[in-house]
């Protein structure tokens, strides 16, 4: 009888252990995937036929080891998944682009994107997208892509809306999320059950430098689906460029002097007024000369900077129309260690 009781106790204990392991593993997987995939779902809303409709799911490798994504499976052909890279180094970032196939699908659609990871350990993470592709409205082209824009210069692009359906359908407004995007519209054709509109979007001179992917919202008098987004993208480049754009000093002692070579290029001749970096003392030879290319050796010393640093090194030109350009400086400024004699 004693043996039977011992056997039953062991059996019950062994039966309980896997359940606790499963719960722990599930919780750990949830925590891990939430950190690596901070966004797991996205709704495209209501979009027009042939509109360029995409979303980037960010991937942040917080595992501490290199990550390899073996494949991505889509449950529906309405969405095409595109990885920025199958390999993401430890501490690195990437993305999974979900492209909604608006030219070939209609109506309410959705897909589950299964990301299969085989390094540093095996796991499957599911991301979800959905949206409604209306068949009565077409953007041509499907997005407004400005390409490269020189900062300080305005640029204009556009598209057309082709509608077929109600005779009283109208575009009543168009709005942008950014103050420096100026959208306008006008009707250029109307017939029985159809209408054509021309949309014009201007990027204003004060647009900030950098890549932008935004949208404007076309407002119609359709009560059921009044708002339709239009994708707008471009890259505003500054008239002043720094090379290198990223400066990594590694481990640095307080008051340690470091020398960095910079090449600063402009579209027009310019003089340098200042070079500054928060927490650092910056010195350079400045003769006030105006030229398109400046090659400098700057001396940098930690001033108030301590610990892990990620700061903007800002260069400002002289003159009434002063412009700036920035590079990113990273370093680990260690504190002096004081040895106490015993």
Automatic annotation (TrEMBL):
Pfam families: DUF1573. PROSITE patterns: PROKAR_LIPOPROTEIN (PS51257). Keywords: Signal. Residues 1-30 form the signal peptide. This is DUF1573 domain-containing protein.
